[in-house]
Amino acid sequence: MGRPALTRDAVLDTAAGLVKEHGPAALTMRGLAAELGTAVTSIYWHVGNRESLLDALAERTAAGLGEIRAAGRTPARRVVSVALALRRHLLDHPHLVAMVHERGLTERMFLPAQQALVHEVHAAGLRGARAASVVRAVTFHVVGHVLVERARERAPLRHPGEPDLWDTGAADDDPALARALARPADPERLFDLSVRALVDGLLTRG
Questions:
Q1: Count of CB atoms situated within 10 Å of the CB of 164
Q2: CA-wise closest residue to 203 among 135, 113, 115, 110
Q3: Terminal C-alpha separation, the chain
Q4: Which residue of 52, 119, 179, 204 is 20 to 30 Å from 156, comparing CA positions?
Q5: 72-115 residue pLDDT tens
Q6: pLDDT at 1
Q7: Do 120 and 170 share a domain, yes or no?
Q8: End of a domain among 18, 35, 63?
């Protein structure tokens, strides 16, 4: 039985997988052709040259955030759900997100999530500049948290580390706090805690 016919979507799916695993620099037309079991000329036929391929991947990644849907009983909980989904998408696709940024499509990538946020902010009774500030504050919080998480992942081992720093007892007579700060941070829990507090504060003030 022969191979199924090559399609543009199949080329993009395979290319996205290679970029996700190894980064854009590792994506070559020959390597992609080998992965697909086809000739390089077939890939050119479907997606053009490498730059066109990268542009198509960036466009598709940017459009992919349109799949984010809010969930929850209240506007505040639905805003939090959008923030959680956006953070997870950015963390799960670092190379693709970086490629989108390099090609000047960052704002387009965030647009679907921000449109979902606008809907929920309106449902909470906020309009105009105040609503815009909430949408941007939540977006900036997500992006900032992701950047810190990625930086901590890539950072070399720190000497002294948090356990050594807080083992001195310099915690203003709060040993329980010192013990907690000596343990590794839980980014998932910290993001959930901080984004809920941010959203509750912003919507309450509104």
A1: 11
A2: 135
A3: 63
A4: 179
A5: 999 999 999 999 999 998 998 888 888 888 888 888 889 889 99
A6: 45
A7: yes
A8: 63
Residues 127 and 36 in one domain: no
Sites in the chain below the pLDDT cut of 70: 1-4, 65-66, 158-162, 167-171, 205-206
3-state SS class at 114: helix
Residue 114 lies in a domain: yes
The backbone region for 39, taken as left when phi is positive above 0, alpha when psi lies in -120 to 50, beta otherwise, is beta
The percentage of residues in the chain with a pLDDT greater than 70, rounded to a whole number, is 90
Q: Counting Cβ atoms within 10 Å, is residue 10 exposed (0-12), middle (13-18) or buried (19+)?
A: middle
Distance CA 115, CA 110 (A): 9
Q: How far is CA 174 from CA 161, 166, 183, 190, in A?
A: 19, 11, 15, 20
Q: Are residues 88 and 26 in the same domain?
A: no
DSSP letters for 47-97: H-SHHHHHHHHHHHHHHHGGG----SSSHHHHHHHHHHHHHHHHHH-HHHH
Residue 71 has what pLDDT?
93
Domain that holds residue 25: 8-63
Say how far apart CA 85 and CA 79 lie, in whole Å. 10
Residue 164 makes CB contacts below 8 A (sequence gap 6+) with none
